[in-house]
Amino acid sequence: MSYTTSSQEIDPKTIASAIGGIIVLIALYWIFIGFGASISQEEYVRLRNGMSYQQVVEIVGGKGDLIMDANVMGMSTRGYRWHGSGMESVMVSFDGDRLTAKMIIP
Question: Tens of pLDDT along the chain (106 residues)?
């Protein structure tokens, strides 16, 4: 089966290949840049242990990308990433709903 436009046929394999390429580009964008809000140095400095995720979101101005979600012995641990100015990212870890660690990832 093939699809016909006004002047040419389009092979389904070509369509599938194009879609696969788009998916790869989106994945690479997410890995290296992310879809979450960006964070400035000033916002990073304001983050403190014990803050809730919502407090962090309010300081940064948007949600981070969830990159880790684990439940160990009844304790929920989550890691979020925000991209910074330039190529670095910021990872913030929460145990329960409280910030426990933050780091800049070059």
Answer: 545 555 567 676 666 566 666 665 555 555 555 556 789 889 999 999 999 999 999 999 999 999 999 987 888 899 999 988 765 889 999 999 999 999 988 7
Are 86 and 96 in a shared domain? yes
Domains: count for the chain: 2
Strand 65-72 to 75-84 pairing: antiparallel
DSSP character string of 46-71: H--TT-BHHHHHHHHTSPPEEEEEEE
First to last CA, the chain: 48
**Secondary structure class of 5 (helix, strand, coil):** coil
Do 28 and 55 lie in a common domain? no
Task: Specify the pTM.
Answer: 0.65
Whether 3 and 46 share a structural domain: no
Residue 87 and residue 44 in one domain = yes
